[in-house]
Design goal:
By secondary structure, the protein is an all-alpha fold. Helix content is 82%, strand content 0%. Helix 2 runs parallel beside helix 6. It is extended. The N terminus is likely disordered.
């Protein structure tokens, strides 16, 4: 029961991450026709989907969520997941996410977010840019840029792992002092 609940929560987190990944900090307070903004945002997002943004979002979300799901599976199985099982599980999870969130759902959910944060004039400018040669290249490169940025961040985090571990331990001790009482003294 608990692992099923964990899976549902993980999928909800994954969907929330995908749907909110394009949000901007401040809402637009302009009365230039919300329906027109949503329609223009849908056009922009269709270009993104056509250029692989949805697939990239699904893959990056799976990459972020998969370690948690894998640990849950390992706890249920009471053994480590093999590399082959990890690959199969990862591919299956991306496929599962793709079944839940299709292009139309992705566009409609994100169009509302775009309409909240961009004026119609801004959306038209973005659309015009995306149709230009540079904008078209930028759209095509989104998957590559996202993948390479993720890899660069992971490499940076690995290079700082000792510092991160030290800071994490200090934070855990500060926030959860009761954990210190449960650890055996050395």
């Amino acid at each position: 029961m608990r692992s099923g609940l964990f899976s549902i929560v993980a999928v909800k987190i994954a969907l929330t991450l995908m749907i909110s990944s394009t949000g901007v900090a401040h809402a637009v307070n302009v009365d230039d026709g919300r329906d027109k903004r949503v329609e223009k945002a849908q056009q922009l997002l269709q270009l993104n989907v056509d250029n692989g943004m949805l697939n990239t979002t699904l893959a990056l979300t799976a990459k972020a969520i998969l370690p948690l799901l894998t640990r849950n599976v390992e706890n249920s199985l009471k053994r480590r997941v093999t590399p082959e099982e990890q690959i199969q599980f990862g591919q299956g999870f991306v496929s599962f996410l793709g079944q839940i969130l299709d292009g139309e759902s992705f566009i409609n959910a994100n169009a509302q977010i775009y309409a909240n944060h961009f004026t119609l004039a801004e959306l038209e400018a973005i659309h015009t840019f995306n149709l230009s040669q540079t904008g078209s290249k930028f759209q095509r490169m989104q998957s590559t840029l996202a993948r390479e940025s993720s890899e660069a961040l992971q490499n940076f985090m690995k290079s700082k792992s000792q510092e991160i571990n030290k800071l994490s331990e200090e934070l855990i001790k500060k926030v959860f002092p009761e954990l210190l009482k449960k650890q055996p003294t050395q």
